[in-house]
Write a structure and sequence with these properties.
By secondary structure, the protein is an alpha/beta fold. It has one domain: Dehydroquinase, class II (Rossmann fold), CATH 3.40.50. The chain contains 5 helices and 5 strands; from the N terminus they run βααβαβαββα. The longest helix is centred in the last third of the chain and has 13 residues. The radius of gyration is 14 Å and the shape is globular. The N and C termini lie close together (7 Å). Bound molecules: 1,3,4-trihydroxy-5-OXO-cyclohexanecarboxylic acid. 1,3,4-trihydroxy-5-OXO-cyclohexanecarboxylic acid binds next to loops. The site of 1,3,4-trihydroxy-5-OXO-cyclohexanecarboxylic acid has 10 residues, from loops.
């Protein structure tokens, strides 16, 4: 089993960025948690602030990964391109949000990626990534 974990824009600034919303742990701490949860499988962690780079990464996952965990960050609410890339490759996908997007501003309530993802996990902090990884591992 091989999992791809994708993080979108500004998630590299975890810890610094609005800690009251996203917590005080930094991106490295998130990567360490993911590495720990994936120690029995193959995996890759990818972060980009660029929509096209995320689309390229999803396309290159075809035939190479069995599952995707994605926090598209702000692109959640805007990116038809990321939705289309996920649909194109057809890889089982879980969407993760650190904060509860359903109880914040109106514009955060709609997620393009949720039109494809099997599951959305939101508002559980960094632990949401672990839940997503466990879900995909159990499925395989
Ligand atoms: C986020 C929620 C998004 O609305 C926001 O733009 C992010 C992070 C989250 O993890 O809670 O950058 O995806």
């Amino acid at each position: 089993m091989k999992l791809l974990i994708i993080n979108g824009p500004n998630l590299n600034l975890l810890g610094l960025r609005e800690p009251d919303i996203y917590g005080k742990s930094d991106y490295k701490a998130l990567c360490r948690m993911i590495e720990d949860a994936c120690k029995d499988i193959d995996f890759e962690i990818f972060q980009s602030n660029h929509e096209g780079a995320i689309v390229d990464k999803i396309q290159s996952a075809y035939g190479n990964f069995d599952g995707i965990v994605i926090n598209p960050a702000a692109y959640t609410h805007t990116s038809v391109a990321i939705l289309d890339a996920l649909k194109a490759v057809g890889i089982p996908t879980v969407e993760v949000h650190i904060s509860d997007i359903n109880s914040r501003e109106e514009f955060r309530k709609f997620s393009y990626v949720s039109l494809y993802a099997e599951k959305q996990i939101a508002g559980k902090g960094l632990k949401g990534y672990i839940e997503a990884i466990e879900y995909l591992k159990e499925k395989s």
